[in-house]
């Protein structure tokens, strides 16, 4: 098979794996939220944060090293495997010994036993066959797809069965361990590589690994630093509330927007290489994405109680205001995703890394200084910092690349302008007297119709802009596609 064919097949398998894993993960979370309590989720959140932090510290990037190596042999693979298990084994031993001190530092002694159990995740590489890395190197993702899907399905079913009969947080812990343990076991059925302890020519791997470890730590701090602070300074109920609402509010971004924008780096890179990139391309992407994200964010914020009732059940409704606040993180997230993809396409990886390190430090410092017993204030500050961060990054982006004009600000504000009368219409109707599900369906449907009509009108009125012409052409393509499918 050609390289192009292998690449396309790999994309298909990795994409299918992500869809299944994310889908089952989301379903599992929504079902467990109705069975378990916020305190259960809080305890599991503390355990997973601690273990995944140590997992990030011990990730030497062995698979990445094997993939990028120009030539490989058994000694190279075995050295990568040896380095991997030595570091993970050392981290696991230190973690296991000092678990009581860690639990005491967190002020949650009840997490000691779950922490020690979950630490198994750190040493599952001992049973994994390193030959599995060669499948990624050779773009042969079919065996990896089978292993990942089998592991996810088994852990998914196990979690639900245990949770249904036992109704404790241990169901989630068993599921997490199985997600890491099963791929290691199954790898031995598809790989014949013979493992041996080797440390031949280890220096290049150590130099490579230190950057992988640093990047993993930065990524963890950026994504979970706020959750660590919540885990340290709030009780189990509030930890569970913040954890699950953070996941729920980010679902549209992680499940819909991010997969849709994954090709942006390749698209921008090709246009830049061909010296064919035009500012309208950036504006069009941003306009399309904001047209989706802005209404979703506003509906999530306004119908927070109804969405929480539908997705999680009545145990979580009294804290739904946290969900309405965290929903606004989506908009800065989308803007950063698009702008950073362009910066990386220009070869600017260093500015992105430095920016994220600096902003992560500033974010965690501010959150640490203001943290108290009020989760609402903490969440509001988190959103405010996210908005401030993207304003700073957008200012840097404009100063460096000068792609935007003042008129572009108005263009990109059209989704927000259209959303204002739509939400005012819902507020004016005062649907509070209706049953919650009726209120959610009727309110979201009416909001979507009013918003869509006003947005299309605004774009039509600005059709002299090339971006608006493209937007309308995309709508026409979708309309024709739906019509053809309806006729078939």
UniProtKB/TrEMBL annotation:
The chain crosses the membrane at residues 43-62, 83-103, 115-135, 147-165, 171-191, 282-301, 321-340, 352-372, 378-397, 409-429, 435-461. The keyword Transmembrane helix applies. It is found in: Cell membrane. Pfam families: Polysacc_synt_3. Keywords: Cell membrane, Membrane, Transmembrane, Transmembrane helix. It is a multi-pass membrane protein. Belongs to the polysaccharide synthase family. This is Oligosaccharide flippase family protein. It comes from Paraglaciecola chathamensis.
